[in-house]
Amino acid sequence: MTAAATVVSLVADWPQEPAPVTALALAVLVGSSLRTLPAWPAAAITAGGVMVIMLAWLSGPNGVTALATAALAGGLVLGPALRLYDKGRRARGSVAWPT
Question: The pTM is what?
Fold first, then answer.
């Protein structure tokens, strides 16, 4: 279904994916998978996200593609950084939030 939608949008010259909201969702998916999942599933999701952005660049550079690339780069940086933060926090012991 996605392939058909992509072909229709190319033929009709409609806006191409990833749209800004889709790009943000992809960045959040990649970042959260790097933060929480085991290595292999996180690597597979990350590879898929990078491939989507690479294919978007092949369809032609534009502002949305640049935004998608920047958002994904943010996910690639923040996901592992938050994973390290979580590890350090767990090593120090769980701290309850003040009520």
Answer: 0.71
